[in-house]
Design goal:
globular, three-stranded mixed beta sheet, alpha+beta
Length: about 80
Amino acid sequence: MPTPPSVRPDGHGVWAAQARTVPFFLEYDTGTERPLSRLVDKLDGYTDLARVTGRVWPVLFWLHSAGRGAPPAPTPRRAG
């Protein structure tokens, strides 16, 4: 039996507006993940989760400072 994806988001929410809802995961960065690429590496776990569940939800990153988000963002990948 395959090992289930291992993701541990800091939060989960559902944004709702005008009869539409969008669930999302939250990664809350306090600056302790060094280097920043460790945060980006977490996306692989979310990709695996989407592949297994068939649910593709956005992952929002809250970064503790403007300088923390300076590197270019990774190219979004589709699960599947």
